[in-house]
């Protein structure tokens, strides 16, 4: 028999010692065959004891690995409570001011002096308006009284508009709707499921159709019908409700009434609308029927702030969906409804997280 190659012997040496040494007396060719490798149709472990040893070792190691990699329920609960406690102490700082050097250094240095931790920071310098925008997510502080005076002083020096808000604070949002309810239903579900962190104290509509839907979510529903002759009175009621409930934002979830310049001015920068196309195309009634007649290949939706100029406010978000010649007007409406719901929800969510800053006729969106 020719000598065994060292390269063939070495990989099997440990296996031979561990499994077979205790069972073999003299060294023979049969033992060598077993250790260097069986014929293709044979199994590597011919010994029942060897198989059992492998199974026991493998299972015990796998169980140990799983046990070590997965935290216990107590540990998970402790980590969750710790994260929630830290989030309660987190805040957003948003600001805008004339652009100049040293703004980031000044703001971050001020936070550092207060022993606050910067968790996330986004900034933008607009070369056209020469303005600087920044959003800072910082923590962890239960009391910001010591920050107020130095922040006000810095704002005066930099001619800076700023806002500080706790992350856990839910802004109050008034939803307004007419007879088309997909956007309203989508927003209500997102709030209920925790996807959208806002508080909805009431819903206003010029039609009674969605009263039961509002009541199913435990939200007061105000039916305020409007005609050309009663528009001033109806909008006065809306402004009274806004003041009474300390509303931070009004969302027109397919509210099919043109707001008066008075309401737009008093709530400037605090009203978001969803438009059923890319602005300014396909204005007026039945936009998807217009799109069908023109044979469009892409439909979309636009979420924007409301101004006195109809559908000309600063755009927050736009999204599209591809369509084709085989789709009916009804199918276009259904596809468009999905896009509208997604776009409006995104705009409201980003606004609620202090990610949307006004920049003249445009917006800066830190998403």
Automatic annotation (TrEMBL):
Coiled coil: none
ACT domain: residues covered: 92-169
MF annotations from Gene Ontology: formyltetrahydrofolate deformylase activity
Keywords for this protein: Hydrolase, One-carbon metabolism
Cited Pfam families: ACT (PF01842), Formyl_trans_N (PF00551)
Protein name, per record: ACT domain-containing protein
GO biological process, one term: carboxylic acid biosynthetic process
CDD domains the record matches: ACT_F4HF-DF, FMT_core_Formyl-FH4-Hydrolase_C
Protein's organism: Didymosphaeria variabile
Superkingdom of source: Eukaryota
Record's keyword annotation contains Lipid biosynthesis: no
Gene3D superfamilies linked: 3.30.70.260, Formyl transferase, N-terminal domain (3.40.50.170)
